[in-house]
């Protein structure tokens, strides 16, 4: 039942993200999620909390299949990053707020991406590990080249939704006993 709940929340979060991003457009710097948030702060806060909650829920379910517990600290750091992101404006005229927003956004993105990557690696899901590594590196390169756009910002989040659902919904392999 938890696994189905994770799938459902991922679908809801993805649909909300698409609707939210469509306000500013998916391409172009004006469509950056944080820029949309300047005009629609409540919608941005909902997006941020829904995104964090969905990813965190899927991460928790994934890590419960392992013996590792360090992910809890990483999720707390990621939450602090998201709270900074939605709590401070992406407005360069308010330099201190702008810096806190950017620090929060970078912290959320990096720590969440690393946590997902480690989950796949430690779970020996090497295909998902490789794909998540490629997506994280590709996203960084695209951000450097094109700056922030909704599609570039959402790419690793959507990939996280999809890959975490795949990971969490797959059946565990039964150990084979040799007698």
Explain what the structure shows.
This protein is mostly helical. It has seven helices and no strands.
Name the average pLDDT. Answer: 90
Task: Pick out the low-confidence regions.
Answer: none
Categorize the overall geometry.
globular
Indicate the proportion of strand residues. under 5%
- The radius of gyration over CA amounts to 17 Å
Number of helices, counting only DSSP H or I runs of 4 residues or more: 7
The count of DSSP E runs of length 2 or more, i.e. the number of strands, is: 0
Alpha-beta classification: mainly alpha
**Largest β-sheet summary:** none
Through-space gap between termini: 35 Å
Order of helices and strands: HHHHHHH
Estimate percent helicity: over 70%
Short précis:
The chain has 179 residues and is mainly α. It is built from seven helices and no strands.
SSE topology:
Layout: H1 2-22, H2 33-39, H3 41-63, H4 71-87, H5 95-122, H6 126-146, H7 150-169
What brief labels describe this structure?
179 residues; mainly alpha; globular
């Amino acid at each position: 039942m938890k696994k189905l709940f994770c799938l459902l929340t991922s679908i809801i979060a993805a649909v909300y993200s698409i609707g939210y991003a469509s306000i500013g457009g998916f391409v172009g710097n004006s469509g950056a999620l944080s820029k949309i948030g300047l005009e629609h702060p409540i919608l941005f806060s909902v997006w941020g909390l829904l995104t964090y909650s969905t990813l965190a829920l899927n991460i928790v379910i994934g890590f419960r299949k392992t013996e590792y517990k360090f992910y809890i600290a990483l999720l707390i750091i990621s939450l602090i990053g998201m709270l900074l992101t939605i709590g401070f404006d992406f407005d360069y005229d308010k330099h201190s707020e702008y810096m806190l927003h950017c620090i929060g956004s970078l912290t959320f993105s990096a720590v969440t991406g690393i946590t997902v990557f480690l989950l796949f690696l430690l779970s020996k899901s090497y295909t998902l590990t490789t794909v998540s590594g490629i997506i994280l590196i590709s996203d960084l390169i695209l951000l450097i080249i094109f700056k922030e756009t909704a599609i570039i910002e959402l790419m690793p989040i959507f990939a996280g939704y999809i890959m975490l659902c795949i990971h969490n919904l797959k059946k565990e392999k039964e150990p084979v006993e040799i007698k």
